[in-house]
Amino acid sequence: MFPIDRDKFLLSFLGKPLLQHQVEMAQKAGFNHFIFVGNHNNLDDIKTLSKSLPGIEAEFVLQQDPKGIADALVSARSTLLEPFLVINPNDVFSDSAYQEIACAGNQSLPAVSCMLGYKVDEYFPGGYLEIDSEANLKHIVEKPGQGNEPSDLVNILVHLNNNPRKLLEYIDIIESNSDDIYERALDRMVKDGHKIKVIPYTDFWAPIKYPWHIFRVMEHFLDKSEAQISDSAHISDSAIIEGKVILSDNVRVMENAVIRGPAYIGPNSVIGNNALLRGYCHIGANSVVGYSTEIKHCYIGDNCWFHSNYAGDSIIEDDCSFGSGAITANYRLDEANIHIDINNNKIDTGYDKLGAIIGSGCRIGINANLMPGIRVGSNCLVGPHVCLTRDLMPNKKAMPVSYQYEVTDNFPNPKQNKRQELLNNL
Amino acid sequence: MFPIDRDKFLLSFLGKPLLQHQVEMAQKAGFNHFIFVGNHNNLDDIKTLSKSLPGIEAEFVLQQDPKGIADALVSARSTLLEPFLVINPNDVFSDSAYQEIACAGNQSLPAVSCMLGYKVDEYFPGGYLEIDSEANLKHIVEKPGQGNEPSDLVNILVHLNNNPRKLLEYIDIIESNSDDIYERALDRMVKDGHKIKVIPYTDFWAPIKYPWHIFRVMEHFLDKSEAQISDSAHISDSAIIEGKVILSDNVRVMENAVIRGPAYIGPNSVIGNNALLRGYCHIGANSVVGYSTEIKHCYIGDNCWFHSNYAGDSIIEDDCSFGSGAITANYRLDEANIHIDINNNKIDTGYDKLGAIIGSGCRIGINANLMPGIRVGSNCLVGPHVCLTRDLMPNKKAMPVSYQYEVTDNFPNPKQNKRQELLNNL
Amino acid sequence: MFPIDRDKFLLSFLGKPLLQHQVEMAQKAGFNHFIFVGNHNNLDDIKTLSKSLPGIEAEFVLQQDPKGIADALVSARSTLLEPFLVINPNDVFSDSAYQEIACAGNQSLPAVSCMLGYKVDEYFPGGYLEIDSEANLKHIVEKPGQGNEPSDLVNILVHLNNNPRKLLEYIDIIESNSDDIYERALDRMVKDGHKIKVIPYTDFWAPIKYPWHIFRVMEHFLDKSEAQISDSAHISDSAIIEGKVILSDNVRVMENAVIRGPAYIGPNSVIGNNALLRGYCHIGANSVVGYSTEIKHCYIGDNCWFHSNYAGDSIIEDDCSFGSGAITANYRLDEANIHIDINNNKIDTGYDKLGAIIGSGCRIGINANLMPGIRVGSNCLVGPHVCLTRDLMPNKKAMPVSYQYEVTDNFPNPKQNKRQELLNNL
Question: Whose CA is closest to B309, among A364, C324, A363, A334?
Fold first, then answer.
């Protein structure tokens, strides 16, 4: 996820962390008791967040050394006393996922466990679900390869386990160092005659694996949002708000600005004179999209400042600022898809329009240029007039070298006597 | 004409190739039978074009090895059976030129040939017409030098020849390798007593010799056009259309855009938010003048894309794109006229405001700077952040060198705690 | 004051030189007879200016070799026949300063001299006034150091001397080469029993010592001005004028421009399309703030041209031009105060937002970047695409080096066949 530092489930959408969205969707489906399994880095954040959520019973489990879902369940062993739903909060589903699994559970519990199977149209490199004629799981096949799929259903972690003790027994007996202990345990359970019902799911699903996956999640939340203008928002008479737009409390939209929805603007943020927002924009709180700035299809965090910029197809975390004239290029001159290097593999992002991905606390100088798909680690400084062509690790600065211009004597200027004529012709 | 590749008479004005304008003007003056003399490269284009023109009889002649007007006429010998008008479609005249020559022809034919003489106020380095008291041609004097002009009438190729066979006989007997065979033949004809009536012409004439001559032709067509907004054009309520503006079919003019005529916008083109067009703008079809772009006195082809640019006094052929922030400088810091190197001669363009001249298929990167009068050959790529100071031959790319910035550790940033205060003061 | 060349009292505010403001304030307080002491460089300017001022009696004194106030008075000896007010026209006061000193003078004259003492809240490195219980001056203490101040009153040069001959006698007997002869003379006078009444003054006072002090004076004049739109000013229907704005004769404000007061725009100046002026702007005569330019808190002289720029917190003298995209950075990436080197001392300007300070007759190329607090001497040329990081002495040019890009063959471009799709999706 470089350069995005924070836990993915703490990324904020429409003013709420993703985890809160997950909890609220679960609540709507009837779940009220939550067991949060976190690690040393994030458990405090989870506790703080969950305390702000009304109407939930919460328990917290520390996973000493995070190594997969089976380990998480083992860590939470003492709390798993009743049937429970297991999900990974970094995978984003529609409300319907929670509702379908809850509904299936209500109909079959306590007899049978249930899981969603995501129906795919084309090959996906994940675990496929082999099922019998009554839609009971027979076997999970990891990455079978195109043409060898046992079904069109992919395993997604929306599992309702009706018998925690039994599940944990099976997990305990799997001997493996790999990260598939949980799937193997399920496999062995169904072989031993335990039933797991598979429910096909066709609605939204987007795992956040790479940072550019944030776009799909952003688009999802914007698509399912409703237009809403806070009473405390101030919109200039000459500004234009078009389509589905959310303006949070105290947002100010200045003269001649245009916001073309879907768009979300967080509390206290300012959309400056002549600014244009278009093509799915998500702007956090206390941010300023200054004069003559265009934001197109961007996820932007809190406390970010722009000033006469173009930011297109970019992801910019909290506390970043862009100097006047700084630009994120978002389209290669050869029109090819943008690839990003992940562990020395060039991954095709699938996007031919992709700008910069910038961690928190960065400052970009005036007239700086960021090339398509570039990543800037948190707390970096990109100097003025820098054309950044390589990723920056966190806490670095890229400054223009000093010998880019030379100073000599200026021959006397002709009098600028053409100006009056030019002025008259304006 | 570097970097303009295409034949000049195929350059498009107001949505029609120049050749079509010539044909239509001739038709209005009563000419209906056309003999097109082309070469290996352009004859097919001419045929295709002429087939789309209603109400004309067309013949086509291949000039094997183009070497001047006399050779063109000789190539067309078998088609020249009746009195005919000879013109060079790269020279642009007003309708009145066709009408005056046609009118003179009607009065004098078949007795006498006629030609237009362009009345000049100051010395012009062309062929001057010596005439007798009855306005009959006596002699054509090539570049007589200032003060030695035999009249104030310059030879322009709008000639009505009443006796093709006689003309070709005279052409056949001139022995010369130079490009003035045709003029010498006329000279000898009048010496032998054939009459050629000279009609003074004072209306528009602009030969396209150098690429910047396109401006005058563009201005001419815009000046004689009528304002016209297609029913299918969409103009935002907050956009402003002022003066004589042509918006073709499906043109879209976005919020707060201002188009100050004379201006022509070709079909399907988009004038984006906050864009400003002023000072004679001619934009082809399927082009996009994006957000916050200013176009001033430019000839722009089809399928060109701009995005937050300034293009002033520039000629940009089809299929070019400008990245965000790219700029054409159009005024020297010393306010001098812009000179352009043609075959190692610095030619004064006569313009103190002249931007870039760009061939087709070029891509200009973000924040690139093009110096006044620079020429970019077709299919070039000017990289981001490049300050282009020298012409580019076709099929080249100019990329920024990689060592323009250096990366070091960034000392911890102070907390950006001034922002809340700044935000409140906005 | 580098790079500001002209005498400070000739700097223009609201269309009048500072000296004229001083004279007018004095006139309003009842002073009508003026003795101007100038030097070889400025006396002619002073004469010219004073002749244009109605209702004043003027005398002119040449100070051969300017060396302080005592020398100025000695130079003017023959003219100092009656009680007189001495002021330094480079120190800016409110009307009330003149009125208070005039009033005090009327009450006490001819018995007693009077002076204003500027009441300070915190330590100021100037001369402090020690007074007795009846507010008579006892002693002037130069820079006593914090904690050692004899009062909270600082010496400002608004002194009404009731006995010129006596004052000059005391000046004559002080033997010193330093610049405090005048203060020493006053000191000795009061020791000898002459009375100088001190009147506390709490209104505006701003000496112009460093160029950035121009901001405070500009703000002062804007604050005390009244909104006024000349009948001959033309404001587009779509432009927005907000707050206290002065538009002088023949000013034109183009479409969608926004001027947020306090602001002063001098005669004939043009505020172009989409321009934004905010945060105290002072623009001289015959200047053009072109398309899409933002001016924030700037003092700008006459005959200056901008074009798609950001100028923030900058001082720009007459006859300067900015190419398209040129930017003055006005905020350090580390958010620290901007320091300026004066005689090898880094002086804290007290501003964390400070742009460029530019002398007269400079031309800034397209996309040039000026770093915060940079100074550009008069008649300099900053080339296109230059990131200026060091001050420029007068009459210099800074040009980009030529090896910033390299030219190679361009591989054939893929056809730009994605455009039609992109166009449809706009």
Answer: C324
